[in-house]
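Student: Hello, beginner here. Can you help me understand the protein record under this note? Any guidance would be welcome.
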Amino acid sequence: MFARRALAVLTAGTAMSALATPADAQSAAAQTAAGTVVNNTAAVTYSVNGTQQTTSSTTATFVVDRKVNFTLAVDQVGFTQVNLGQQNAVTTYKVTNLTNAAQDFLLDPDQQNISLGILPGTDNFDIAGMKAYVDSNGNGVYDAGVDTKEYIDELAPDASATVFIVGNVPTSASANLAFVSLHVIAAEGGASGTKGAALIATDLNLANADSTVDVVFADDDTDGTLYLGDIARNGQGRVYSGYEVGTRNVALTVAKSAKILSDGVNLVNPKALPGATVEYCLRVSNATLTAAADGVTLTDALPAHTTYVPGSISIGTPGLLGVACVVSGSAEDDDANDAGETDGATASYDTASRTLSARLDRVGGGGATAVAFRVTID
C-alpha cells in the first residue's frame, strides 16, 4: 500500500530546489585512478676525502585510495502524466560517476520512502510491478525487452547512465498521484557483466594502509533533506519523482448520418421510398490528443418503419463524410458470440429489442472510428 508519512514537512520551494541541484561535481577523469601505485625514492650525494659519492633512499610506496562520489538527479520535468490502466509508465533519472574508478551501482526503486513535504501533493495509489532498468542503448527512451539490466555495470569516471523506473498504473477511478523514489547504492566495479557488492567504507579511525586501496565515501546528500532520505558520505543517493493521472475524460463525439443507397426505382439520386436501402453511419471521434478512450460501446435502437439488413455491420477507418462511411475495416457478425473476433471490435443485433450494439476496443487520442450498418424502409 502507499506510504503513510508522519515526519516534519519541508516547504515545497526548499524541497524542489534541493532536488533540482545535483551535488557540486569535480571531474573524476582528472583524478588519479584508485589503485595507482605511487613510488618515491630520494637521491643522496656526499663527499668522502674529496670523492663524490651517491646513494638512494629506501622507496616510499602507497596506493591511491578510492574516493567514492556520484550525483543522482531526476531527468525529467515535473511528474510523468499517465492514464488509468497505463502499462509501462516511466519516470527517468540520471546517475553520474565522479569516483576515481569504474563503479557498479545498485538500483532500488521505492514507494515506501520518506517523502512527505518533499514533493507537492499527496500520493494515493501504488505503481504495480515497479522495476528500475538501465538505458542500454543510450537513446533516453525506455524500450521494453531491450532495457532489461537492473543495475549499472562498470560506469566509467565522469560517465552517466540513464535509469528508468517502470510500472503499471491501476484502473481505480480514485487514483491521482503516486510518489516514487530511486535509491542508488555505490557498488564494487571491476568485473563486466557481474553485479558488484555494495561498497563498505574503510573505518576512518584507522591509519592509512599504504598497500591497501581504502574506500572513502565523498558523496553529498542527494535529496537535500538532511536526515529524511539520504545523508552525506554514505555511498548512497535518493531522489524523488511521481506519476500523475492527468486526464480523466476526453472530448469524444459521435456523428450519425443516413445515406440512401438504392430505392429500386432510380439509378441516380435514389429516394427514401418503401423498399429502399439506407446506410446509417456512426463516426466516433476523440479530439483529445493525449488520451485514448477505451471500451467505447455504441447502442442504436432502430427507428420504426425500418428493418435491419442482416450481416451489414462494418467497423473501421472512417471515409469522407457523405461519401463512404468505412473505407478500411472489417465486417462484423450479428450475434453476441465474439469468440472468433480478432480485430478488437465486436458487434451484434438483438432482434427482440431491435437494438444494434458495437464495441470498439480503443479510439486513440486524435483518432476516429466508424460503424456502418444498413436497414430497409418498410
In short: The CA atoms of residues 136 and 147 lie 5 Å apart. The chain has two domains: 12-39+61-245, 252-377.
